Amino acid sequence: MVFAMAVIGAVTRLTESGLSITEWKPVSGALPPLTDEAWQRAYDLYRASPEFAAKHNWMSIEDYKKIFFWEWLHRLWGRSIGIVYALPLLWFAIRKQIPQGYGWKLLGILALGGMQGVVGWWMVASGLVDRPSVSHFRLATHLGLALVIFASMWWVILDLKNAPASQLARRGLFYHAIAALVFLAITITWGAFVAGLDAGLVYNTFPLMNGNLTPSGSADIFNEHGWVQFTHRYLAITTFLMLMALSVHRKDIWLGVMACAQVMLGISTLLLQVPVTLAALHQAGAIILLALTIRAVHRLKSS
After folding, report:
1. Into how many domains does the chain fold?
2. What's the domain range around 29?
3. What is the C-alpha separation between 19 and 17, in angstroms, rounded?
4. For residue 77, is it within any domain?
């Protein structure tokens, strides 16, 4: 469900649906507008937003309902994850069936989930005052926390399965795996910067950027559209090489295959000017690659 949540989040961003709901109602917001009057109220609130004035002033209420759906689904799915996680956790706690040492880990993941809801609204709020889009820094924080939640759950799963560590792995290979994981996390974060700034819609050529090695403009890798994309490209290339080396040393075929697939998805998304389907698959690929890299680190941790 967390994996699906990240993909739904990507579609929400790519369809520019994330600012369509201008209120945060954790309980009553689970239901969409059910009457014409309720739809009109939601639409009027959106019409008062900076995004509507700058980008979507052509939208009728029927057009608005389409972008409303994705943001509503994104929030509803998040609420559902909380219920699906918390209720069984409470059940196992009452029955004292939680393995020793795992209680605080499982509660910590639940707390991170609650924090993610707050961070999500903090992100949305950045686009409701004086700018027609969310802050790309807050978007990256929101995605980053989602990845932390996913990674934490995956690590606990691997612990509970008692996945064996390789007896032949050297300590240096473990550090290599950690470094690859760090670079992968930074690359995914820069992907959020690219998405938040729509930087994937500039320089849609590869490997050069419109015939040049570097983009034009000031070399601001955090805010300048071309340079944000440039940084994401070369972080991705570096990460790919590190993961391929790890895949060869570990004889981890799936890690190598997924690293290659993710690079091809990224290049295709860029060349085709960010179609929603490919871009969503690219985000899904990032999470799968993260899971495979965490598995490699986990198997090496005791060697």
Report:
1. 2
2. 1-135
3. 6
4. yes
Decide: 176 and 242 in contact? Cβ < 8 Å: yes
Separation in Å, CA 175 to CA 60, 248, 300:
55, 15, 9
Q: How far apart are CA 190 and CA 195, in angstroms?
A: 9
Q: Which residue has the tokens 């972008």?
A: 67
Local confidence pLDDT in tens for the 303 residues of the chain: 999 999 999 999 999 999 999 999 988 889 999 999 999 999 999 999 999 999 999 999 999 999 999 999 999 999 999 999 999 999 999 988 888 889 999 999 999 999 999 999 999 999 999 899 999 999 999 999 999 999 999 999 988 876 444 443 457 788 899 999 999 999 999 999 999 999 999 999 999 999 999 999 889 999 999 999 999 999 999 999 999 999 998 899 999 999 999 999 999 999 999 999 999 999 999 999 999 999 999 988 866
Same domain, 130 and 167: no
Report d(CA 220, CA 224) in Å as an integer: 5
189 and 240 in a single domain? The answer is yes
Give the closest residue to 259 by CA, choosing from 283, 293, 298, 289: 289
Report the C-alpha dihedral over residues 34, 40, 43, 44, rounded to 10 degrees: -140
